[in-house]
């Protein structure tokens, strides 16, 4: 009998005798992650063989928050109930944006689902690292990763006066005032152009505004036509730098790479 058929049999039996009994928890539970941000953290805080699969997003160079070589060590799923059941994990780690029908089906089949939202600050991300490490049964590994993040931030921190930077994201939008990437900008010696102008999350930043009211640094993390316009080459008071979109949205170990890149840009602006 396949695992899926067995799980369905348990579900049918549960209709007569109550909810199915969850599997016994081990000291180091096996985990399937359905979220690219938790993929990267779990890869750092689990032991070999414990992380059974990561999300398919982590296999896509456009959306992964993990180095390709690291992602290649794990199988991936598309997040379907059938794929997860076949792996028979103790815990499923998902985003708070998981489809309600998928979450309900996993609950009905006795799968333990733990959801994590997007961290909106460095402190929230560090707390998430520690929560995931505790869930995996390895809080010491979470502590080590947090120390690595703090060390990277300390090395990236600038004592000089902050430099105003506009982050131009895919679609020509800006991040919100309370977002992880804005917290990272503040921590590495920048002030937020969009926050200084009371722009909100996902507000559109037109090319005309950049030309008329340029920031000291323009961080381009998109590829729209306006973001590549030749007029941007003729703004002598503005420095333009590319920022990898994969550094924008996830915390955990991604913070280390983002801090290193932002510090590199900050030093180039004002050593």
Mean pLDDT: 90
Helix and strand sequence:
HEHEHEHEHEHHEHEHHEEH
Cα distance, first to last residue? Answer: 66 Å
CATH architecture designation of the largest domain: 3-Layer(aba) Sandwich
Strand order of the largest sheet: 3-2-1-4-5
Query: By helix and strand content, what is the structural category?
Result: alpha/beta
CATH class of the largest domain: Alpha Beta
What value does the Rg take, in angstroms? 22 Å
Q: Helical amount among residues, as a percent range?
A: 40-55%
What is the count of β-strands? 9
Number of domains: 2
Q: What general form does the structure show? A: elongated
Number of helices: 11
The proportion of strand residues reads 5-15%
Q: Which fold name fills CATH's third level, the topology of the largest domain? A: Rossmann fold
Low-confidence stretches: 1-25
CATH homologous superfamily label of the largest domain: Nitrogenase molybdenum iron protein domain
Question: What characterizes the major β-sheet?
Answer: 5 strands, parallel
Give a verbal description of the structure:
The chain is of the alpha/beta class and 271 residues long. It folds into two domains: 29-150, Nitrogenase molybdenum iron protein domain (Rossmann fold); 159-269, Rossmann fold (3-Layer(aba) Sandwich). 42% of the residues lie in helices and 13% in strands. It is built from eleven helices and nine strands. The protein has helices spanning 3-17, 36-45, 68-71, 81-87, 100-108, 122-136, 139-156, 180-187, 193-196, 207-212, 253-269; strands at residues 31-33, 51-55, 76-77, 91-95, 113-116, 163-168, 190-192, 217-220, 239-242. The strands form two sheets. It has a five-stranded parallel β-sheet with strand order 3-2-1-4-5, with helices on both faces. Helix 3 (68-71) links the parallel strand 2 (51-55) and strand 3 (76-77). Helix 6 (122-136) packs antiparallel against helix 7. It is elongated and about 60 Å long. The N and C termini lie far apart (66 Å). Residues 1-25 have low confidence and may be disordered.
């Amino acid at each position: 009998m396949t695992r899926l058929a067995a799980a369905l049999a348990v579900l049918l039996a549960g209709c007569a005798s109550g909810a199915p009994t969850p599997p016994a928890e081990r000291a180091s539970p096996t985990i399937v992650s359905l979220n690219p941000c938790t993929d990267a953290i779990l890869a750092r805080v689990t032991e070999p063989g414990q992380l059974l699969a990561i999300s398919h997003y982590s296999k896509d160079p456009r959306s992964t928050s993990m180095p390709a070589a690291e992602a290649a060590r794990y199988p991936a799923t598309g997040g379907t109930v059938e794929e997860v059941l076949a792996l028979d994990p103790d815990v499923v780690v998902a985003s708070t944006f998981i489809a309600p029908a998928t979450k309900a089906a996993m609950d009905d089949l006795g799968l333990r689902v733990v959801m994590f939202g997007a961290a909106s600050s460095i402190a929230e991300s560090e707390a998430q690292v520690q929560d995931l490490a505790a869930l995996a049964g390895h809080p010491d590994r979470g502590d080590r990763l947090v120390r690595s993040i703090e060390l990277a931030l300390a090395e990236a921190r600038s004592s000089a006066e902050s430099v105003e930077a506009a982050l131009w994201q895919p679609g020509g939008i800006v991040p919100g005032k309370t977002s992880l990437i804005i917290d990272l900008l503040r921590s590495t010696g920048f002030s937020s152009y969009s926050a200084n102008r009371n722009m909100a999350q996902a507000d559109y930043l037109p090319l005309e505004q950049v030309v008329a009211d340029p920031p000291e640094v323009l961080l381009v993390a998109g590829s729209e036509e306006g973001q590549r316009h030749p007029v941007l080459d003729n703004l002598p008071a503005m420095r333009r730098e590319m920022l990898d979109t994969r550094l924008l949205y996830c915390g955990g170990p991604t913070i280390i790479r983002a801090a290193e890149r932002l510090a590199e840009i900050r030093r180039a602006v004002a050593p």
